[in-house]
Design a protein that fits this description.
about 750 residues, alpha+beta, Hypothetical protein af1432, Beta Polymerase, domain 2, 5 domains, five-stranded mixed sheet, 30 helices, about 15% strand
Length: about 750
């Protein structure tokens, strides 16, 4: 060992790193407007540091660095105070050490211990290994959130730091965590108004799932940065002059669309990076002349800049008068620049900007006593979630999807007949609106009047609609209503009412069946019931009883005769044979899974499975939902029958599987050599002209020697659209085909699509 006193030991270096991180946290906290409760934060740090001493993260750094990082996010990026900072420092103590929640309460009081308890209940991610566990853990999360919103805010901070350090995890874990983040945490952050964190979570998830595409878009953003800076400077110069004349204190920022948002738009619009025209937006953040003048100042700025540049008539978004459900306020206007380019301008006060960046937590900075009258929308949302939790969907994924309907929704504003304004998710129907007002109103709804015109239950509402619900006491909830609604509240209520009615009908059916059997002199039994199930083609006993209870099936003479027939016993015994030898079983295409104690299949996820020509044809199944081909970013999913199904990573089905069955996800990569052919569909669009079809087939068949399976072309008003199904070896073939087709003069768009 070196005796040089100037050389630090690893322990000393780590101790110094930990102390520096804590000092940075304290400095951040002291710079806020919160009460300076340094003593309790120091106490929480010392306790957590001692509890986690000697424990390392997968990256090799001391574990305490994670709670410290989460506490800094809670302080700086969400804007919470000492109670939340302490809870963040302590959030893993009960889960990972021998200390109990009672120890936390004795040392730090009931409020901090309650938040830590909430975080402990949902530790290890939202989801467990099995569907039932996932639904239960998610319910715990939402119930805890509805008791104290700080629990989910700290949980989001925890997830953000985990995503920032995801590089040290194994690939299959990266897919699971990234998928779960994109499926639940990013929309939760958005719903709580944490726009900056939502954007970073989306970007990080995308970075780990599609590293090449992420790098490509990031590079293109860097290449075009200088041009954007020039556009921004030119565009904002006359705006600055006008705002100076108005005597406003302000600053103007360039907002660049996130990598994930750009990629998402490229996918949905089927366009390349070069055809995304709203990458740059401008944000004006100002100090109002007074609190009362804040709204007027927004509109004054709008009027002033609209005199400089022509505004788009259909793109004024007034989130100032009517804030979004997550508290977001701003005035959005799209202006035509001198370069002939539409640029969106977002006008916000300093307060509005804080709310946009930090969500509901920012309200507390502007209200005495820590409350906010603007939290009404949040309270309504939490109340809706509580109602859903009272009667959740039996299937875990259905339950998650029901919640996500509310998480992802954008808002529209509709009016009652009396002129009261109501916030509804986009695409909400008249029936959704009825259930949002009252369950009784929804369950007896027969139609609605929208802007005084009669519309059906399924009519989609638009912002500004005035809606009157029409009811009848004779009306009952119908099974098809589930297709008429889009909101979680309405869907949950309809499903609940239908289940209750089905139970009641089953009870009535059971009484009627027992009466029928007694009158026929028969003793009720499962055997007799199963005979009736078979006779009337019912799925099971429950469906038979429901049919009888609803009077759709009346038992009669034919049933009586069938049940009274004497059943002659067969002399044959039923024997169970096991066919097949070990050799034949070993030839089955399985990826060597093992059974866990719970009976759920699991595999060695440390290795990355190679997709070779042999394994593709024998061992694995290509998913029908997304049709992956060699070169696509893919993952494997081990299903209940121990089959590995290969999905594209961005496939909607795969997104659900990653977030709900993370332990079954397998990292996979291609190792093919252009021996197998895969069917893909290419979409074409352009200007119709004579001989175009011949040029297309020449490029594909002769130049590229590719087999066409199907080709459809439609032309209307001089514009043609076409789809070509053809066989390729991999993604590189697709790129070559698309590139060569784009060289044809009149073709304007070529892209691979899912058929």
């Amino acid at each position: 060992m070196d005796d040089n006193p100037n050389i630090k030991t690893r322990e000393q270096a780590e101790e110094e790193m930990i102390n520096q991180a804590f000092e940075a946290l304290l400095n951040d906290y002291l710079a806020t407007k919160h009460r300076k409760r340094v003593e309790i934060i120091t106490k929480a740090f010392n306790f957590a540091n001692q509890a986690h001493r000697g424990i390392k993260r997968r990256s090799g750094e001391p574990y305490i660095m994670h709670p410290l990082a989460v506490a800094r996010i809670v302080c700086n990026e969400i804007g919470l105070g000492s109670t939340s900072i302490c809870a963040a420092l302590l959030h893993d103590v009960v889960e990972d050490t021998d200390y109990t929640i009672e120890d936390i309460e004795n040392l730090f009081g009931p409020k901090i211990s309650q938040i830590v308890d909430g975080l402990t209940k949902i530790s290890g991610g939202i989801f467990g290994d099995r569907a039932s566990a996932q639904a239960e853990n998610f319910k715990k999360l939402l119930l805890t959130m509805s008791n104290d919103i700080r629990v989910i805010l700290i949980k989001i901070a925890d997830r953000l730091h985990n995503m920032r350090t995801l590089g040290s995890m194994l690939p299959n874990k990266q897919f699971k965590i990234a998928g779960e983040t994109l499926y639940i945490y990013a929309p939760l952050a958005n719903r709580l108004g944490l726009n900056k964190i939502k954007t970073e979570l989306e970007n990080l998830s995308f970075k780990y799932e599609h590293p090449e595409e992420y790098q490509e878009i990031e590079s293109k953003l860097a290449e075009t940065a200088a041009e954007r800076d020039q556009v921004f400077t030119e565009f904002t110069a006359p705006i600055r002059t006008q705002l100076d004349r108005m005597g406003l204190k302000y600053h103007i920022l360039a907002r660049v669309k996130s990598v994930y948002s750009i990629w998402n738009k490229m996918q949905t619009k089927h366009v390349p990076f070069e055809e995304i025209y709203d990458i740059l937006a401008v944000r004006i953040i100002f100090e109002p002349h007074s609190t009362e003048e804040e709204l007027n100042d927004c509109f004054d700025i709008y009027v002033a800049i609209s005199k400089i540049y022509k505004p788009h008539p259909d793109r004024l978004r007034d989130w100032v008068s009517h804030p979004k459900a997550n508290g977001y306020q701003a005035l959005h206007v799209t202006l035509m620049s001198n370069r002939g380019q539409w640029i969106e301008v977002q006008i916000r006060s300093e307060r509005m900007n804080d709310v946009a960046e930090q969500g509901f937590a920012a309200h507390w900075k502007y209200k005495e006593g820590g409350g906010s009258e603007d939290e009404g929308e949040l309270e309504k949302w939490l109340h809706t979630i509580k109602e859903i939790l009272e009667d959740p969907q039996p299937d875990a994924i259905d339950f998650l999807d029901t919640i996500k309907l509310n998480l992802f929704a954008s808002e529209i504003f509709v009016f009652t007949p009396k002129g009261d304004i109501k916030t509804m998710p986009q695409n909400a129907t008249a029936l959704d609106f009825a259930f949002s007002l009252h369950t009784d109103l929804g369950s007896h709804c027969i139609g609605a009047k929208v802007n005084h015109k009669l519309v059906p239950l399924s009519h989609k509402l638009e912002s500004g609609d005035q809606v009157e619900i029409l009811t009848s006491r004779a009306q009952r909830v119908q099974p098809e209503w589930e297709a008429y609604v889009t909101t979680a509240r309405a869907r949950s209520k309809i499903a609940s009412i239908l289940r209750k009615e089905a139970k009641q009908l089953m009870k009535e059916g059971e009484v009627l069946l027992d009466q029928f059997l007694q009158e026929a002199g028969l003793t009720p039994s499962d055997e007799l019931c199963q005979k009736l199930v078979k006779l009337h083609n019912a799925k099971n006993r429950e469906e038979l009883l429901t049919l009888i209870g609803s009077k759709k099936l009346t038992l009669g003479e034919a049933d009586r005769n069938l049940l009274k027939e004497k059943q002659t016993k067969s002399w044959k015994r039923l024997l169970s044979f096991s066919f097949g030898s070990k050799e034949s079983k070993s030839e089955e295409a399985t990826p060597a899974p093992t059974e866990s104690k719970e009976g759920a299949a699991s595999i060695n996820t440390k290795q990355v499975l190679k997709l070779t020509e042999e394994t593709i044809t024998k061992s694995y199944t290509m998913a029908d939902c997304c049709h992956p081909i060699p070169g696509d970013d893919v993952l494997g999913y081990l299903d209940e029958d121990n089959r590995v199904i290969i999905h594209k990573r961005q496939c909607p089905v795969a997104v659900r599987l990653k977030s709900s069955y993370g332990n079954r996800i397998i990292a996979t990569e291609w190792d093919t050599h252009k021996e197998l052919s895969f069917l893909v569909t290419i979409y074409l669009k352009g200007i119709d002209c004579v001989g175009l079809l011949n040029e297309v087939t020449q490029v594909i068949s002769r130049q590229l020697n590719v087999n066409i399976r199907k080709l459809t072309i439609e032309s209307s008003d001089g514009i043609f659209e076409g789809r070509i199904q053809l066989y390729v070896h991999d993604v590189e073939d697709v790129r070559t085909i698309c590139h060569n087709l784009k060289q044809i003069q009149h073709i304007k768009q070529v892209v691979r699509v899912e058929d």
